[in-house]
Amino acid sequence: MHFVGLVNVANLKAGGMGSLGHEQLEWLEDDLKGRSASTPIVLYAHIPLWTIYPDWGWGTDDSEQALSYVKRFGSVTVLNGHIHQIMQKIEGKVSFHTAMSTAFPQPAPGTAPSAGPMKVPAEQLQQVLGITDVNYVVSGSSLAIVDSSLGG
Amino acid sequence: MKSITKGINKMTKQSIWVASLATPAMIAVLLLLLGSPSVRANDHSAANATVKIDNFVFGPQTLTVPVGTTVTWTNSDDIPHTSVSTDGVFKSKVLDTDEKFSYTFTKAGTYPYYCTIHPKMTGKVVVQ
Fold it and tell me: Considering only CB atoms, which chain A residues are within 8 Å of B112?
């Protein structure tokens, strides 16, 4: 397995969302080069690497380029945070997953005037806070199947 | 000779007397002249202006002020924010709830700024 930690919260531009930056993207491309496509890849980044809700900055402006570098791998798992709620998405062989926060929940996209902390009745708080465990399970469905043409 | 000397002494005494009267009067006039500009600035009642940060919004989003105004940003939101000029003119530290940041605008112009933690939050100060 190959794990990559990415920073998309630095040098953010006014009016933008998360950003990986040109230098980091070049580094990522170089880091993945030459790795066998059957290597399971895990990417970490604070702000989601897919666009969830641009109005609240929930996305990464240049993540598409990063995702293009992992497209050839048979198994890619993207782990994100930032939005203080669980959201999941599967796109081909890439599965995205965001985690809850242990501090406070945030509202679902567009359901509140802002992304600020969501107040819940005290007895409900423990349900909306949590941590995510990721385990590698050997099972019939977790093999990375990679097709390649004879042309390479 | 004595009378001339006496005369000169009298005159000198008089000039000293006049001078000692004139100087305080001149100082008083000067102070009056120097004092009035600040009186005029208070009449503007815009020497200070405020921006309230709340709900991920800078309010007002566009603030128009005269040259020389000190703008104070107050974070009234539940979470930290910053106020940073996009052109490197000013930069606040991370403001926790109820913390403030001030900047005095000494030159006319338009100053766009944003929150570096939540870059979708943008604002503008127009200095005229």
Answer: 14
Return the domain boundaries, chain B.
1-44, 48-127
Span B89-101, pLDDT tens digits: 999 999 999 999 9
Name the fold adopted by B48-127: Immunoglobulin-like (2.60.40)
Contact A12 B116 (CB under 8 A): yes
- Is this structure's pTM higher than 0.90? no
**Minimal-distance CA residue of chain B relative to A8:** B117
pLDDT above 70 for A8 = yes
Which chain B residues are closer than 8 Å to A110 by Cβ?
A: none
Instruction: Output the pLDDT for position B58.
Output: 97
Per the omega criterion (within 30 degrees of 0), is the bond before B60 cis?
yes
Distance from the Cα of B56 to chain A's closest Cα (Å) equals: 6
Q: Can you read off the two tokens belonging to residue B66? A: 């005269």
pLDDT per position as a tens digit, A100-138: 999 999 999 999 999 999 999 998 888 899 988 888 776
**pLDDT at residue B37 tops 60:** no
The architecture that CATH gives domain A2-142 is 2-Layer Sandwich (3.30)
Q: Between A22-32 and A63-70, two packed helices, what is the crossing angle to 10 degrees?
A: 0
Is B97 touching A (CB cutoff 8 A)? no
What pLDDT score was predicted for residue A140? 61
Q: How far is C-alpha A14 from the chain's CA centre? A: 22
Helix (H) or strand (E) holding B21: helix B2-44
In the DSSP assignment, the letter for residue A24 is H
How do B57-59 and B48-54 pair as beta strands? antiparallel
Instruction: Using an 8 Å CB-CB cutoff, list chain A residues near B122.
Output: 14-15
Please tell me the distance from the alpha carbon of residue A99 to that of residue A56, in angstroms, as a whole number: 17
**B5 pLDDT more than 70:** no
